[in-house]
Design a protein that fits this description.
Pfam families: TPR_leprecan (PF23557). With 356 residues, the protein is mainly alpha-helical. It is built from 13 helices and four strands.
Amino acid sequence: LQLNKLEEAANAAHTFFMANPEHMEIQQDIENYKNTAGKVNLIDREAKQHMEDYSAGVRHYDKEEYELAIDFLERALKGYYSEDEDCQIMCEGPQRFEEHEYLEYKAGLYEAIADHYMQVLACKHDCVRELATRSGRISPIENFLPLHYDYLQFAYYRVSNYVKALECAKSYLLFHPDDEDVLENAGYYEGLLEGTMDPDTVKPRKEAKTLLRRHKLESHLLQVAAAGLGYTYKEPNYWNRYGARQDEHSVPSSISSEPEDGPRLSLAKKPMPKPDRELKEGGPLLYSDVKFVYNSQQLNGTQRVLLDNVISEEQCRELHRVASGIMLAGDGYRGKTSPHTPNERFEGATVLKALK
Protein backbone atom coordinates (compact mmCIF):
# COMPACT_ATOMS: atom_id res chain seq x y z
CA LEU A 1 0.00 0.00 0.00
CA GLN A 2 2.87 2.38 0.83
CA LEU A 3 4.20 1.78 -2.70
CA ASN A 4 0.79 2.73 -4.11
CA LYS A 5 0.25 -0.79 -5.49
CA LEU A 6 -3.42 -1.04 -4.60
CA GLU A 7 -4.11 -4.16 -6.65
CA GLU A 8 -1.36 -6.14 -4.91
CA ALA A 9 -2.49 -4.77 -1.55
CA ALA A 10 -6.09 -5.81 -2.22
CA ASN A 11 -5.04 -9.33 -3.23
CA ALA A 12 -2.81 -9.64 -0.15
CA ALA A 13 -5.64 -8.49 2.12
CA HIS A 14 -8.05 -10.90 0.43
CA THR A 15 -5.60 -13.78 0.86
CA PHE A 16 -5.27 -13.01 4.58
CA PHE A 17 -9.04 -12.67 4.96
CA MET A 18 -9.72 -16.06 3.35
CA ALA A 19 -7.57 -17.67 6.06
CA ASN A 20 -8.93 -15.39 8.83
CA PRO A 21 -12.58 -14.69 7.96
CA GLU A 22 -13.33 -13.36 11.46
CA HIS A 23 -10.92 -10.42 11.02
CA MET A 24 -13.23 -7.39 10.72
CA GLU A 25 -10.48 -4.81 10.12
CA ILE A 26 -9.17 -6.66 7.07
CA GLN A 27 -12.70 -6.97 5.74
CA GLN A 28 -13.08 -3.21 5.96
CA ASP A 29 -9.69 -2.71 4.30
CA ILE A 30 -10.81 -4.89 1.39
CA GLU A 31 -13.93 -2.78 0.93
CA ASN A 32 -11.77 0.35 0.95
CA TYR A 33 -9.45 -1.15 -1.69
CA LYS A 34 -12.44 -2.00 -3.86
CA ASN A 35 -13.80 1.51 -3.61
CA THR A 36 -10.40 3.11 -4.27
CA ALA A 37 -9.13 0.86 -7.06
CA GLY A 38 -12.45 -0.30 -8.42
CA LYS A 39 -11.24 -3.91 -8.17
CA VAL A 40 -13.88 -6.58 -7.76
CA ASN A 41 -12.23 -9.89 -8.73
CA LEU A 42 -9.72 -10.48 -5.94
CA ILE A 43 -7.16 -13.29 -6.01
CA ASP A 44 -6.40 -15.61 -3.11
CA ARG A 45 -2.64 -16.15 -3.41
CA GLU A 46 -2.78 -19.20 -1.13
CA ALA A 47 -5.75 -20.89 -2.81
CA LYS A 48 -5.44 -24.60 -3.52
CA GLN A 49 -6.04 -24.98 -7.24
CA HIS A 50 -7.59 -28.44 -6.98
CA MET A 51 -10.18 -27.02 -4.57
CA GLU A 52 -10.88 -24.06 -6.84
CA ASP A 53 -11.49 -26.48 -9.73
CA TYR A 54 -13.68 -28.68 -7.52
CA SER A 55 -15.81 -25.72 -6.43
CA ALA A 56 -16.15 -24.56 -10.04
CA GLY A 57 -17.17 -28.07 -11.09
CA VAL A 58 -19.85 -28.24 -8.39
CA ARG A 59 -21.21 -24.83 -9.43
CA HIS A 60 -21.54 -25.97 -13.05
CA TYR A 61 -23.07 -29.25 -11.87
CA ASP A 62 -25.70 -27.39 -9.86
CA LYS A 63 -26.52 -25.36 -12.98
CA GLU A 64 -26.82 -28.63 -14.96
CA GLU A 65 -23.90 -27.57 -17.17
CA TYR A 66 -22.55 -31.10 -17.18
CA GLU A 67 -19.85 -30.77 -19.85
CA LEU A 68 -18.24 -27.91 -17.93
CA ALA A 69 -18.73 -29.73 -14.63
CA ILE A 70 -16.88 -32.77 -16.01
CA ASP A 71 -14.03 -30.59 -17.27
CA PHE A 72 -13.47 -28.90 -13.91
CA LEU A 73 -13.99 -32.01 -11.78
CA GLU A 74 -11.54 -34.04 -13.88
CA ARG A 75 -9.07 -31.19 -13.59
CA ALA A 76 -9.65 -31.14 -9.83
CA LEU A 77 -8.92 -34.87 -9.60
CA LYS A 78 -5.71 -34.50 -11.56
CA GLY A 79 -4.64 -31.65 -9.28
CA TYR A 80 -5.62 -33.62 -6.18
CA TYR A 81 -3.40 -36.58 -7.02
CA SER A 82 -0.54 -34.25 -7.94
CA GLU A 83 -0.90 -32.44 -4.60
CA ASP A 84 -1.04 -35.80 -2.83
CA GLU A 85 2.36 -36.73 -4.29
CA ASP A 86 3.79 -33.40 -3.09
CA CYS A 87 2.28 -33.90 0.36
CA GLN A 88 3.82 -37.37 0.62
CA ILE A 89 7.24 -35.97 -0.30
CA MET A 90 6.99 -33.10 2.21
CA CYS A 91 6.31 -35.62 4.98
CA GLU A 92 9.74 -37.17 4.39
CA GLY A 93 11.47 -34.17 5.96
CA PRO A 94 12.66 -33.73 9.57
CA GLN A 95 10.01 -34.27 12.23
CA ARG A 96 9.52 -32.48 15.55
CA PHE A 97 8.85 -34.53 18.66
CA GLU A 98 7.00 -31.90 20.66
CA GLU A 99 5.99 -34.30 23.42
CA HIS A 100 9.66 -34.87 24.28
CA GLU A 101 10.97 -31.29 24.08
CA TYR A 102 10.06 -30.16 27.58
CA LEU A 103 11.75 -33.24 29.08
CA GLU A 104 15.02 -32.71 27.18
CA TYR A 105 14.40 -36.24 25.97
CA LYS A 106 17.42 -38.08 24.57
CA ALA A 107 16.31 -41.03 22.47
CA GLY A 108 18.55 -43.92 21.55
CA LEU A 109 19.30 -44.66 17.90
CA TYR A 110 16.54 -47.20 17.36
CA GLU A 111 14.00 -45.21 19.36
CA ALA A 112 14.78 -42.12 17.28
CA ILE A 113 14.42 -44.07 14.03
CA ALA A 114 11.11 -45.58 15.16
CA ASP A 115 9.79 -42.20 16.32
CA HIS A 116 10.80 -40.57 13.05
CA TYR A 117 9.13 -43.12 10.80
CA MET A 118 5.98 -43.17 12.92
CA GLN A 119 5.72 -39.41 12.49
CA VAL A 120 6.41 -39.67 8.75
CA LEU A 121 3.78 -42.38 8.38
CA ALA A 122 1.19 -40.43 10.37
CA CYS A 123 1.94 -37.32 8.30
CA LYS A 124 1.49 -39.20 5.02
CA HIS A 125 -1.68 -40.85 6.26
CA ASP A 126 -3.15 -37.44 7.08
CA CYS A 127 -2.55 -36.02 3.60
CA VAL A 128 -6.14 -36.83 2.63
CA ARG A 129 -7.32 -34.52 5.41
CA GLU A 130 -4.83 -31.81 4.47
CA LEU A 131 -5.91 -31.86 0.83
CA ALA A 132 -9.59 -31.59 1.82
CA THR A 133 -9.14 -28.60 4.14
CA ARG A 134 -9.37 -25.01 2.95
CA SER A 135 -7.03 -22.31 4.16
CA GLY A 136 -8.00 -21.01 7.59
CA ARG A 137 -10.29 -23.96 8.35
CA ILE A 138 -9.78 -26.73 10.86
CA SER A 139 -12.39 -29.10 9.44
CA PRO A 140 -11.98 -30.77 6.03
CA ILE A 141 -14.72 -31.08 3.44
CA GLU A 142 -16.23 -34.41 4.38
CA ASN A 143 -15.93 -37.27 1.89
CA PHE A 144 -13.95 -34.92 -0.37
CA LEU A 145 -12.18 -37.31 -2.75
CA PRO A 146 -15.08 -39.78 -3.19
CA LEU A 147 -17.41 -36.85 -3.92
CA HIS A 148 -15.50 -36.13 -7.14
CA TYR A 149 -16.45 -39.55 -8.47
CA ASP A 150 -20.01 -39.23 -7.19
CA TYR A 151 -20.54 -35.98 -9.09
CA LEU A 152 -18.79 -37.35 -12.17
CA GLN A 153 -20.79 -40.59 -12.39
CA PHE A 154 -24.03 -38.67 -12.80
CA ALA A 155 -22.54 -35.92 -14.98
CA TYR A 156 -21.16 -38.52 -17.41
CA TYR A 157 -24.55 -40.23 -17.46
CA ARG A 158 -26.22 -36.95 -18.42
CA VAL A 159 -23.91 -36.53 -21.40
CA SER A 160 -24.55 -40.17 -22.41
CA ASN A 161 -21.01 -41.39 -21.67
CA TYR A 162 -22.09 -44.57 -19.88
CA VAL A 163 -18.63 -46.15 -19.81
CA LYS A 164 -17.20 -43.20 -17.89
CA ALA A 165 -20.31 -43.09 -15.70
CA LEU A 166 -19.83 -46.73 -14.73
CA GLU A 167 -16.09 -46.21 -14.25
CA CYS A 168 -16.68 -43.32 -11.83
CA ALA A 169 -19.48 -45.16 -10.01
CA LYS A 170 -17.17 -48.14 -9.45
CA SER A 171 -14.42 -45.76 -8.30
CA TYR A 172 -16.78 -44.25 -5.72
CA LEU A 173 -17.77 -47.73 -4.53
CA LEU A 174 -14.14 -48.44 -3.66
CA PHE A 175 -14.59 -46.00 -0.77
CA HIS A 176 -18.21 -46.89 0.07
CA PRO A 177 -18.96 -50.39 -1.26
CA ASP A 178 -22.35 -50.53 0.49
CA ASP A 179 -23.76 -47.24 -0.85
CA GLU A 180 -27.16 -48.37 -2.12
CA ASP A 181 -27.79 -45.39 -4.41
CA VAL A 182 -24.51 -45.72 -6.27
CA LEU A 183 -24.83 -49.52 -6.38
CA GLU A 184 -28.18 -49.08 -8.13
CA ASN A 185 -26.69 -46.48 -10.45
CA ALA A 186 -23.83 -48.82 -11.37
CA GLY A 187 -26.30 -51.61 -12.11
CA TYR A 188 -28.32 -49.27 -14.30
CA TYR A 189 -25.23 -48.17 -16.26
CA GLU A 190 -24.28 -51.83 -16.75
CA GLY A 191 -27.73 -52.46 -18.20
CA LEU A 192 -27.24 -49.62 -20.68
CA LEU A 193 -23.92 -51.09 -21.83
CA GLU A 194 -24.85 -54.77 -22.04
CA GLY A 195 -25.88 -54.60 -25.70
CA THR A 196 -22.60 -53.07 -26.87
CA MET A 197 -19.89 -54.37 -24.52
CA ASP A 198 -19.16 -56.44 -21.44
CA PRO A 199 -19.69 -54.11 -18.42
CA ASP A 200 -17.25 -56.21 -16.37
CA THR A 201 -14.40 -54.85 -18.51
CA VAL A 202 -15.05 -51.39 -17.03
CA LYS A 203 -12.85 -51.09 -13.94
CA PRO A 204 -12.48 -48.46 -11.21
CA ARG A 205 -9.83 -45.86 -11.86
CA LYS A 206 -6.32 -47.04 -11.16
CA GLU A 207 -5.25 -43.95 -9.21
CA ALA A 208 -8.22 -44.33 -6.83
CA LYS A 209 -7.40 -48.00 -6.21
CA THR A 210 -3.73 -47.19 -5.63
CA LEU A 211 -4.43 -44.38 -3.16
CA LEU A 212 -7.00 -46.38 -1.20
CA ARG A 213 -4.73 -49.45 -1.02
CA ARG A 214 -1.86 -47.30 0.24
CA HIS A 215 -4.13 -45.58 2.75
CA LYS A 216 -5.32 -48.89 4.18
CA LEU A 217 -1.75 -50.17 4.43
CA GLU A 218 -0.69 -47.00 6.27
CA SER A 219 -3.55 -47.49 8.71
CA HIS A 220 -2.53 -51.10 9.34
CA LEU A 221 1.11 -50.14 9.94
CA LEU A 222 0.12 -47.36 12.34
CA GLN A 223 -2.06 -49.74 14.34
CA VAL A 224 0.65 -52.42 14.48
CA ALA A 225 3.29 -49.87 15.51
CA ALA A 226 1.01 -48.36 18.15
CA ALA A 227 0.32 -51.78 19.65
CA GLY A 228 4.05 -52.53 19.73
CA LEU A 229 4.84 -49.23 21.43
CA GLY A 230 2.09 -49.66 24.01
CA TYR A 231 -0.47 -47.01 23.06
CA THR A 232 -3.82 -46.96 21.27
CA TYR A 233 -4.22 -45.65 17.74
CA LYS A 234 -7.73 -44.70 16.63
CA GLU A 235 -8.22 -44.42 12.88
CA PRO A 236 -10.05 -41.18 11.91
CA ASN A 237 -13.01 -41.50 9.57
CA TYR A 238 -11.40 -39.99 6.48
CA TRP A 239 -14.22 -40.98 4.11
CA ASN A 240 -17.19 -39.84 6.16
CA ARG A 241 -20.32 -40.58 4.16
CA TYR A 242 -22.18 -37.64 5.64
CA GLY A 243 -20.56 -35.75 2.78
CA ALA A 244 -22.90 -36.41 -0.15
CA ARG A 245 -24.10 -34.68 -3.27
CA GLN A 246 -26.69 -32.10 -2.26
CA ASP A 247 -29.18 -32.85 -5.04
CA GLU A 248 -31.82 -35.37 -6.03
CA HIS A 249 -29.92 -36.96 -8.92
CA SER A 250 -29.96 -40.64 -8.14
CA VAL A 251 -30.26 -42.96 -11.11
CA PRO A 252 -32.44 -44.88 -10.84
CA SER A 253 -34.69 -43.56 -8.08
CA SER A 254 -37.52 -45.10 -6.14
CA ILE A 255 -39.52 -41.99 -7.04
CA SER A 256 -39.65 -42.05 -10.81
CA SER A 257 -40.69 -39.39 -13.31
CA GLU A 258 -39.82 -41.47 -16.41
CA PRO A 259 -41.45 -44.55 -17.99
CA GLU A 260 -40.22 -47.97 -16.89
CA ASP A 261 -38.25 -48.59 -20.10
CA GLY A 262 -36.29 -45.34 -19.86
CA PRO A 263 -33.90 -43.70 -17.41
CA ARG A 264 -35.52 -43.45 -14.01
CA LEU A 265 -34.60 -40.06 -12.59
CA SER A 266 -35.76 -38.44 -9.41
CA LEU A 267 -38.31 -35.69 -9.62
CA ALA A 268 -36.98 -32.31 -10.72
CA LYS A 269 -36.13 -29.78 -8.08
CA LYS A 270 -39.01 -27.50 -7.26
CA PRO A 271 -38.31 -23.75 -7.22
CA MET A 272 -38.28 -22.19 -3.80
CA PRO A 273 -41.39 -20.11 -3.10
CA LYS A 274 -40.78 -16.38 -3.22
CA PRO A 275 -41.03 -14.64 0.16
CA ASP A 276 -43.82 -12.16 0.72
CA ARG A 277 -41.30 -9.41 1.37
CA GLU A 278 -37.71 -8.77 0.40
CA LEU A 279 -35.19 -10.42 2.73
CA LYS A 280 -31.89 -8.61 3.25
CA GLU A 281 -29.49 -7.85 6.07
CA GLY A 282 -30.69 -4.79 7.94
CA GLY A 283 -34.21 -5.19 6.56
CA PRO A 284 -37.46 -5.44 8.56
CA LEU A 285 -38.10 -8.40 10.85
CA LEU A 286 -40.66 -10.92 9.62
CA TYR A 287 -42.47 -11.14 12.97
CA SER A 288 -43.55 -8.18 15.07
CA ASP A 289 -42.95 -9.86 18.45
CA VAL A 290 -39.30 -10.74 17.67
CA LYS A 291 -36.78 -8.25 19.08
CA PHE A 292 -33.52 -7.34 17.31
CA VAL A 293 -30.43 -7.32 19.58
CA TYR A 294 -27.14 -7.38 17.59
CA ASN A 295 -26.18 -7.37 13.90
CA SER A 296 -23.20 -8.95 12.08
CA GLN A 297 -20.80 -6.09 12.77
CA GLN A 298 -21.59 -6.06 16.49
CA LEU A 299 -21.05 -9.85 16.57
CA ASN A 300 -17.67 -9.52 14.83
CA GLY A 301 -18.56 -11.61 11.78
CA THR A 302 -20.69 -11.85 8.65
CA GLN A 303 -24.28 -13.03 8.16
CA ARG A 304 -24.88 -13.14 11.91
CA VAL A 305 -27.72 -11.77 14.01
CA LEU A 306 -28.91 -12.07 17.61
CA LEU A 307 -32.68 -11.99 18.15
CA ASP A 308 -34.84 -12.24 21.27
CA ASN A 309 -38.39 -13.54 21.78
CA VAL A 310 -37.97 -16.09 18.98
CA ILE A 311 -39.10 -18.88 21.33
CA SER A 312 -40.53 -18.87 24.84
CA GLU A 313 -38.42 -19.31 27.99
CA GLU A 314 -39.91 -22.77 28.53
CA GLN A 315 -39.06 -23.80 24.96
CA CYS A 316 -35.56 -22.42 25.42
CA ARG A 317 -34.99 -24.45 28.60
CA GLU A 318 -36.28 -27.62 26.93
CA LEU A 319 -34.09 -27.05 23.87
CA HIS A 320 -31.04 -26.52 26.09
CA ARG A 321 -31.83 -29.69 28.05
CA VAL A 322 -32.13 -31.78 24.87
CA ALA A 323 -29.03 -30.26 23.29
CA SER A 324 -26.91 -30.92 26.37
CA GLY A 325 -27.48 -34.65 25.97
CA ILE A 326 -27.08 -35.16 22.22
CA MET A 327 -24.71 -32.51 20.86
CA LEU A 328 -21.36 -33.64 19.47
CA ALA A 329 -18.39 -31.59 18.27
CA GLY A 330 -18.45 -31.02 14.51
CA ASP A 331 -20.38 -29.09 11.94
CA GLY A 332 -22.11 -31.73 9.79
CA TYR A 333 -21.97 -29.64 6.67
CA ARG A 334 -22.18 -32.72 4.39
CA GLY A 335 -19.60 -32.00 1.74
CA LYS A 336 -19.78 -28.22 2.01
CA THR A 337 -17.21 -25.90 3.51
CA SER A 338 -17.80 -25.13 7.19
CA PRO A 339 -18.30 -21.38 7.83
CA HIS A 340 -16.79 -21.61 11.29
CA THR A 341 -13.36 -20.26 12.12
CA PRO A 342 -10.66 -21.99 14.21
CA ASN A 343 -11.63 -19.71 17.11
CA GLU A 344 -15.24 -20.90 17.17
CA ARG A 345 -16.61 -24.09 18.68
CA PHE A 346 -19.62 -25.60 17.00
CA GLU A 347 -21.59 -28.64 18.08
CA GLY A 348 -24.28 -30.33 16.04
CA ALA A 349 -26.85 -33.09 16.29
CA THR A 350 -28.61 -35.19 13.68
CA VAL A 351 -32.38 -35.10 13.29
CA LEU A 352 -32.50 -38.77 14.36
CA LYS A 353 -30.74 -38.02 17.65
CA ALA A 354 -33.06 -35.09 18.29
CA LEU A 355 -36.13 -37.26 17.69
CA LYS A 356 -34.82 -39.97 20.03
